Model the fold of this input.
Amino acid sequence: MRRVRLGMVGGGQGAFIGSVHRIATRMDGQFELVAGALSSDPARAQASADELGIRSYADFAEMARAEAARPDGAEAVAIVTPNHMHAAPAVVFLNAGIHVICDKPLAATPAQASAIAAAARASRARFFLTHNYCALPMVREARALVAEGALGQLRLVQAEYLQGWLADAAQGKQAEWRTDPARAGAGALGDIGTHAWQLAAFVTGAVPAQVSADLSSMVPGRMVDDDARVVLRYASGAKGGLWASQVAVGQENGLSLRVFGSEAALEWRLQDSERLILTPKGGPARILTRAQDRSASSRTPPGHPEGYLEGFANLYSDIARIIRGDDGPVDRVPGLADGLSGMAFIAAAQASAAQGGAWVEVAP
Amino acid sequence: MRRVRLGMVGGGQGAFIGSVHRIATRMDGQFELVAGALSSDPARAQASADELGIRSYADFAEMARAEAARPDGAEAVAIVTPNHMHAAPAVVFLNAGIHVICDKPLAATPAQASAIAAAARASRARFFLTHNYCALPMVREARALVAEGALGQLRLVQAEYLQGWLADAAQGKQAEWRTDPARAGAGALGDIGTHAWQLAAFVTGAVPAQVSADLSSMVPGRMVDDDARVVLRYASGAKGGLWASQVAVGQENGLSLRVFGSEAALEWRLQDSERLILTPKGGPARILTRAQDRSASSRTPPGHPEGYLEGFANLYSDIARIIRGDDGPVDRVPGLADGLSGMAFIAAAQASAAQGGAWVEVAP
Amino acid sequence: MRRVRLGMVGGGQGAFIGSVHRIATRMDGQFELVAGALSSDPARAQASADELGIRSYADFAEMARAEAARPDGAEAVAIVTPNHMHAAPAVVFLNAGIHVICDKPLAATPAQASAIAAAARASRARFFLTHNYCALPMVREARALVAEGALGQLRLVQAEYLQGWLADAAQGKQAEWRTDPARAGAGALGDIGTHAWQLAAFVTGAVPAQVSADLSSMVPGRMVDDDARVVLRYASGAKGGLWASQVAVGQENGLSLRVFGSEAALEWRLQDSERLILTPKGGPARILTRAQDRSASSRTPPGHPEGYLEGFANLYSDIARIIRGDDGPVDRVPGLADGLSGMAFIAAAQASAAQGGAWVEVAP
Amino acid sequence: MRRVRLGMVGGGQGAFIGSVHRIATRMDGQFELVAGALSSDPARAQASADELGIRSYADFAEMARAEAARPDGAEAVAIVTPNHMHAAPAVVFLNAGIHVICDKPLAATPAQASAIAAAARASRARFFLTHNYCALPMVREARALVAEGALGQLRLVQAEYLQGWLADAAQGKQAEWRTDPARAGAGALGDIGTHAWQLAAFVTGAVPAQVSADLSSMVPGRMVDDDARVVLRYASGAKGGLWASQVAVGQENGLSLRVFGSEAALEWRLQDSERLILTPKGGPARILTRAQDRSASSRTPPGHPEGYLEGFANLYSDIARIIRGDDGPVDRVPGLADGLSGMAFIAAAQASAAQGGAWVEVAP
Done:
C-alpha cells in the first residue's frame, strides 16, 4: 500500500485542527507528510516544519510551484487555516494539479467559495472537504439504513450542534478568529452549523429546499452569530430543525441527529458515537453498534470505543484510497458539493434572519 | 386531614385521563369522590358511577345545581372531557361556587376560553388546570434553581414533547377526538404543545413575547397539526424553540426541557424524570435527585422511582390543601393564567403558521 | 368491584413502609382500610387511627379477635412492623382466618419463620409477602421472556441491591432497628439482599443450590452485616452473584438484575425501571418498554413513568383479586415459599460466612 | 522530538493486537517501526514486513542480535504474540539491552513469568506491559482522585470485564489460542481478568491480599475458564469482587470499575469511557469529563470522543518519553510489577477454585 505524499497549509505550532489532521493521516499509515507552509509567520513556519522533519515554505504559492515541480513532491495538500484563508491556497494548489483536502466550512465568503469551485472544476486534481463526523461508522450505518428504506418516507429531521465554550467574550486564538466576521464569515452557523447541515444531508440523502432562521449574538459586542436556530422545509414535505450554538453552557461538543420517517426513527449522538438507536414503528428500539455496521470503517472489534480521531482517519484513508485509484466507495467522502451546500445554507440562513425569519430558498 | 368532596365530569368507562385523575385523588387520601356526570351517554354514565359507588347525573348542569344544594355536595369538580367540552361545565360549576379542576388545554376555542375566564373571575370558587408535569419534584427543583439565580441570565430554552402514536391515521376513541378540529381545537399544538409551553414557563419564570411557527399535518387527510415547530423570542432577548409532534415514530412520551443561562444549564427529561442535570459553566455536570429536592413533594426516599401518577397526585394534594385553606405554596399550582397563556400560544402559533411563519405577538 | 376490607399492624405516625402500603391499597381503589393496631404505643396507635378514620386497637391479638367476629371486619391484614414483629401477629391473624399481607423479610429468626409457616399451612387464610419489585411490569416481562425460553439455557445471574444510607453509624428510627440484630435478624442481607434473591428467582425461575458468602460490617461497632457478597451455584451448572450493600456511598436504591443465557441476555435496573434490555446473541440489543409488556399491570400508556408505588399497588391489586376469587394469575404473587426461601438464603449465607466462605447448601 | 526506533515480534498479517500496537505507535508520531519478526511462518513474516516497509527476520533471536548490533537498530521491541510466546523473545531482547513492550498477560505460566522477571531485573533495558485501559484520561483522573483522598477510606471495589464472543465453541484464530490452555495459560481470567485486576489496583492503589474464586467452563468441551467470579479481601478490611466472563452474551467489551470509600464513590465504564462519575457522600453525583482531567493525556478538547486506540497511544507516548529520558510521570506506566501481580492473581484464583473457593493468599 503506497503512502500518499502530503503537504499542509496552516497547522503550525499552537494550532488545533492541524494537529488533528496530522494524527488522522498517521493513524493508518497511508500518508507521508513531506512539506508545509505551516504558518503565515515565517519563523514559526520553519520551526514547526523542523519539528515535523518536513520541507518548509514561507509561502503557499511557492510551495505549490515547488512541490508540483518535484518528482517526489506532495500529491495532495491539507488546508487547515482559518476560513478566510481556504480559498487562496486551494485555488493555487488545484491549479497546480495537487489534490486539496480542505477543512470546513468551504470559505468565509460566497466569492471565495466560487473561486474554489471554479478552480476545482477546471482542475484534474480532486477536492475533498473534511466533514469528519460523517465518516464515523454508525453515521455511515445510519445513511445505509435510510438509503435502503428502513425509515419509510422521511418526515422529521432534527440536527443539533451545541457547544458552550464561547459563552463569554472570546479569549485565545481559537476563539478570536472564529468570532471575527472577516476571518470566519459566520459564527456558530459556519463553524458547527455546517457540520450539522452536512450530517443531516449525508444521512437522509435530502437537502432542505427552504430555511427560516433566527440568529443571535448572545454575548455583548460579538460580531457574529453565536446561536442559530433554523427551521427546515424539504421539497418532499418533510420538515426539520437545525440548532447550532456556541453559548450552550455545559455542552462540550453536543452534536446529534434525529430522523423520523413513516416507518422508523434513527437517533445518534456524538457523545455516544458508537451506538445508533433504530426504532421501528411499534418498537422496540434497537441499539445498533459496530457489530451491525456494514461500512468496514473501523480498526477494532465493536466495544472498543473509537471516536473523533478515528472518524477523521476514516476520511483520510478513503481519500488516500481514492488518490491511489484503489477500489471502494467514493460518494461517501465529502467534497465540493458539500462545501457549496454549506455555503448556500449559511447564505440562506443569514438572508432569512436579516428578513426576520422569512422563508428563503437554499441555492441548489 | 379532612377529605375534599369531589365530583367528576367525563371519565366514564373506557376513558383514559379520567382514570388518571381518580388515581391521583386517591393516592394521598385527600379526596372523596362523591358524584359524577361521567358520560354523555346516560347508560354509560350510570354504569360508570355505579362501579365507583357515587351519585350519578345524566347532565352536568343538573349535577352542579344538585351538588351545590346539598350540605354534603361536591366542593370541587374535575372536568376530564375532550377539549371542546371543558367550557360549558366549567362555567356552570364556577357559577355554582364549586371549585373546578380542569384538564388541559383550557378549551378548544378562544371563545370557550374567554367564557371560562369570565366565570372564573366572577366566581368565589377557584379554577385549577392539570398541567401535571410541573408538579414532579425535579421540575419543581428546576424552577427553584432558576428562581434563585443559579442559571444567571436566561439565554436559551428548548422544550420538546414528542410522541409517535398518531403516525398513522387515527384509530380509536382517544385518537379520534384529538384529531377532530371541532373537538380538539388544535392537534399536537394543543394536546401536548401546551404542556411543553407551560413547563418552560413554569421553570424559567418567563413567557415568550413572540413566536414563529411551522405546523404540519404529516398524515394524509388529517385536519389538525400533528407536528408543530415553534421558534420563541423572549422580551429579554432570550431565544428558544418548542417542538411538539405526534408523528415522531418510536417516541412514547418524549417530554424534555433544556435551559441555558449565562452561568449554568439545566436539562430534564420525563423518561428519566427523577434526575435533573445542572451544569455550571466550567462543569462538572451534577446529577440532582430527590435527595436535593426542596419541594417536599414526594412520598418515598430518593431512589424509589416516582413518576406520572405521583406528579398528578402532587397537584391534587396541593389543590386539596388550597381548598381546605391549609398553609403551603399556592403559586406552583397551575390555574387560569396558565390556561389562557396556553390558548394565547395556540392562537399565536396558528396565526404565525397561517402567515408562513411570520413573527406573531403572544397575547399577554 | 368489591373493595376488600383491610386492617394494618404497625405503620403508625412516623413509619415509612406503612405509608407505602396504604398508598398502594388506595391507588386502584380495591381496598378499604377499616382497622389498625398501628403502634405499640397506645396513644400513637389511637392518634394514627383517628387520622385515618379507622377502628383502633391497642393490641393486635385483640384486633384479630374483634375483627374476625364482626360481619364487616377486616378480611385481610397488612403487617408492616420491624422484622422481629412479623411472626406474632401473622400467626394470630392466620389462626383467626384473616388473610395476611406481610412485609419482607419473612421474619427475624428461623423459629419465627417456622411459626408463620405452620400457621399458614394450617389456616384457610392466605399468606402474601410484599416483595414489591417483582410486580413491576418490566420485571414481569423479564420473567415471561425467560419462561418462554428466550434466553436459552441459563448460565449467569448477577443481582445487586446497593444503598449508601447506612455508610455512617445509624441515626434515626429506620436505621436503628435495621442495624439491631434482635429486631432485624440480619443487616443488608435481610433488608435488601432478600429482595435481590427473590427478584433473581422470580425472573429466572431458578433458585441457587449453594452459596458462598462474605459478610462485612464496614461501620465500626455495627452488629449486623452492612455489605454482603454472595456467590451462587445453581444445580443446573449456572453460576451467579448477589451483592447487597448499605454502605455503597452515593447509591440511593441501586437494585439491578443481569441474566445471561446461552442465547440471549436480559438487563434491568430499578433506576430505569420502565426499560428492559434484551440482547439476543449476535445483537442488536432491544430496549423493551411497557409497549412490549404482556402482564397487563400498568395504569397508563407506555412512556408515562410508573415506579415504586405502582409496583406495590400492582401487588395489592393482585392480592385483592385473589381474595375476591376473581380470575387472573396467582403464581406471580409472592407468598410463603418466597419468604421461606429468603430465610434459607439468609441462613445459608450467614453459615457460609461464619465458615470463611465455605459452600453451604440452601435449604429447599 | 526524536522518534524511537521500534521492532515488533508477532503481529503479522491477520493478527489483531499487533495492528492495534502499530496504530498506537503512529498516532503521536513518536515511533518509527524499523524491523520485525512478524510471524512464525517465514513467508508470512516476510510479506508482512514488506507491506510495512521494514526489515524482516524469520527468527526473533536473530532479530535481537542483529538489531542490537546496528547503530540504527531497534531501541525497543513490541511483543504481540500469544501469551505462551511472550517469555522467550522478552528474555532475548532484554538480554540484548533492547527495551521490551509486552502485551498482557505477562506469560502463560509462572515459570515463563519468572524468566521474564529475572531477565528484566538483570537488564539495563526497561520492561513495559500494555495494560492499555489504565492510560485512558478518566481512569488516570480516577487514580488521582483516590490518591488525593477524595474517597476517604477504601471500602468496596467491583471490577468487571464482560464479553460474549466466546459464548459458543471457539472459531477462528483469535478464539482458538485463547481457549487453548497451552497457549493461553488461563481463559477469561488471564485474557481479560488481568485487565480488571490491574485497573482496580491502578485506580485504588491497593492490591487484594486474598481471593476466593469460582471458575467455570460454560461451553462444553472448553479446556479453560470462560467465566471467573472472584471475591477479594484487602488487608485494610476493604472488600471487593472481580467478574470476568467471555460467555456474557451481548456484552461487547464491558469493562467497568466501581469503587466506594467512606466519603465518596467512583464509577467508570469503558462503554462511556470519557465520563467518570464521582458521588460524594450526600451527593449530588458529578459527571467528570476531560474538562476536569489533570493527566494531560488527550489530543483534543473534551467532548471529542477518544477511546481505545488513544488509550494505547497514551501508553506508547509515555513509553517513548521514558525511553528518550524526557521528563514526566513514570509510575503510571505498567511494567513488570503489574505483570507479576497479574500472574499472582491468576495463580491464586486457580488455586482457590481448585479448592472449592478456599481463601488463598495472593503472592506479593
Chain D has a mean pLDDT of 96.
